[in-house]
Every structure is written in C-alpha cells, then in structure tokens.
Amino acid sequence: MSFFLSREESRRVDRIAIEQFGFSGLVLMENAGRGCAEFIRSFPVEGPISICCGKGNNGGDGFVIARFLKIFGRSPNVFLFADPFELRGDAKTNYEILTRCDVPIHVLSEPEEEFVEELKDSGIVVDALLGTGATGPPRKPIDSVIRSINAARKVHDFHVVAIDLPSGLDADTGTPNDPTIRADTTLTFVRPKKGFLQPVAVPFLGNVETIGIGVPEEVVKKA
Fold this sequence. Notes:
Elements: H1 7-19, H2 25-41, E1 49-53, H3 57-71, E2 76-80, H4 89-98, E3 105-107, H5 113-121, E4 124-128, H6 142-155, E5 159-163, E6 185-189, H7 202-205, E7 207-211, H8 217-222
Parallel strand pairs: 1-2, 1-4, 2-3, 4-5, 5-6, 6-7
C-alpha cells in the first residue's frame, strides 16, 4: 500500500467509508474539520483567523474549522467566494449550521478591499478554496483570491494554512497551476497526495501534516 494517495484513491476512501462502512459524509467532514481546527489552535500565532472558502467540500471543511475555532475561543472570519445558493450537500449543511454560530461570514463575488484589509490584520489565513478534485488553472473568482493571498503574504506577517492541498496544486502531478497558493503549512487528509512527491510542488506545500478523518485503516487499504 502506497503511503501517498492519488486523486482517485482519495475519492475512494470517502466512497468506501460511506458505502461499505456506514459513515455519513457529514461525519467525515466533521472529523476532518475538527482535526484541522485542533491543529490550527495549537499555533503560537495571535490575531484573527481568516478562512477562505469555495463552494465545494473543501469549503465545507472550512465551515467546520470556523465553527470549532469559535468553540475553542479563537476569532475566525469566513470569506465565502460563492453564492450560498450554489452550495450543495454536506458543504451546504455546514454553512447553514455556521450561520447560527455567531461567526462573521462575508459573501464576496471577488476579493474586494474589505477582504484585502482583513488579510493585513490576520494571524492565520486558511485556504479552503479548492480540494483534490480540482484540475487545471483556478477559475474566477478563485484565481483572484489566490493572487490576493499570495501578494499579501509577501508584505504581511500571517501564516497560510492549506486544507488538504494548496489550491491550484494538482493532487496527482504536483504541478502548480497559475495561480497556486503558497502555504506555510498543509493539513492533508488521510495520507499525503502523490503530487507532493514532486520537487516542483515543495515550495507551495510548506510543512505537511496528516489529519485523520476517523476511518479505520482497512478503508485506506481497500481504497
């Protein structure tokens, strides 16, 4: 069994956990988001935490992270770069839960001045924009969000945490698309991704930590 997972193997982990072991997608997302939040709260970094979310399950992980960081006494701000009506499934459910949790949620169609100003004051910026299923160059408005984060990172002292992989990085080949998040820490689920082995990916990953999602090892072996 490879220590690294491909894009398809990552999908199979979720599918096998749900179809053969009886997990729900909500439980997997809850475990993933809580594991990330517990890791993030251990950082010796002060200041608000800006969580940047897309409309897919990676964004759903971001909603769970925000909820738990609030429970842990931190100050998360969520920036959703999608119409909430576009959210589906588990991501939609966790967004609706978060709207009731006294966490500021900013719905933006592009990275406006408000977002750039928030980045300047952040201690941590969380990239929950695109997950392992994304291929090719990021599309609007996500491409502009990535560029804004990378540009602000050059002049402001905040720590960038990528969820599962840096948005824009190909999970299988490790190829960084234009643009790709430059993370200080990557919190990847279950196993590192095969693309992480490629030297071209290394400058974008930062320190890689693996976060469990509560599935038995047998699920990973089957995948």
